[in-house]
Amino acid sequence: MLPIWARGLAGQTALVTGTSRGLGEAIALALADAGAQVLAVARDPQGLAALAARHPAITPMAGDVTDDAFVDGLAALDIDVLVNNAGTNKPQPMAEVAVTTLDLMLNLNVRAAYLVAQAAARSMLRRGTRGAIINITSQMGHVGSPGRTVYCMTKHALEGLTKAMAVELAPAGIRVNSVAPTFIETPMTAPMLADPAFAKFVQEMIPLGRTGTPDDVAAAVVYLASPAAAMVTGTSLLVDGGWTAR
Which residues form a coiled coil (predicted)? Predict the structure, then answer.
C-alpha cells in the first residue's frame, strides 16, 4: 500500500469555482493530476472549454456562483472536495469605495462563498462522505492593508467561516481549511503589480523575495484535499512567503 502522502485523490470528485483563469485554473489542473475528477465552474464557457481540453479529468460547468438557483443545484452533485475559489478585489481608498463596489465584493466573496460551501456540505452530509472543503482566502484575511478595507473584511469573514464550519462538520468527518496566498501572479493582480512602486513594496514585504505563482497555491490545495491532511481541519495554510510572519 502506498504511504498516506502518496495516495492522491483517485476516485474523488472535486468541485472548483472560478476556474477559467489564474488560481482556479491551476488548482483544477493540479487536482486532476492528483487523480480527481474535477468539475470546473466559471462564467466563461470559452475559458472552461480551453481548460477542459488540457486534461481529460476536467468537466466544464458554466455557471455563476452568485446565482442562487445554480448554487442550489450543486447540492445534488456528488462532491468529495470543494475548492471555494471564486472571488474578486477592487482596491480603493476607504473614503472612495462606492456602495456598488461594497455590495459586489460582499456578494461574491462572502455570500456566494457561504452558499457554495453550504451546498457542498449538504452533498457530503447526504452521502456520508468524509470530504474536504477548502476556502481560498488571502494573507489579507490575517492582516490589514491600505486600499483594501473591503477585501480584507471579506477574507477575514471567510477565515471565520472556515473555523466555524470545521468545528460543526468535524463529527461528520468533513474537514474544512483555508489557503491564504500572498500576491500571486494572475490576471487579477497583473494591473497592480504593473505599478513599479507597488511591485517593489510587495517584494520588500515578502521575506522569500518573490511573488507567488498559481502552482504554489495549487500545491497547498492538493495537500489539504488529500489523505496526507487527514488530521488537519480548521486551519489556514498561509502561502505568503513569510509576509504575515513579520
Answer: none
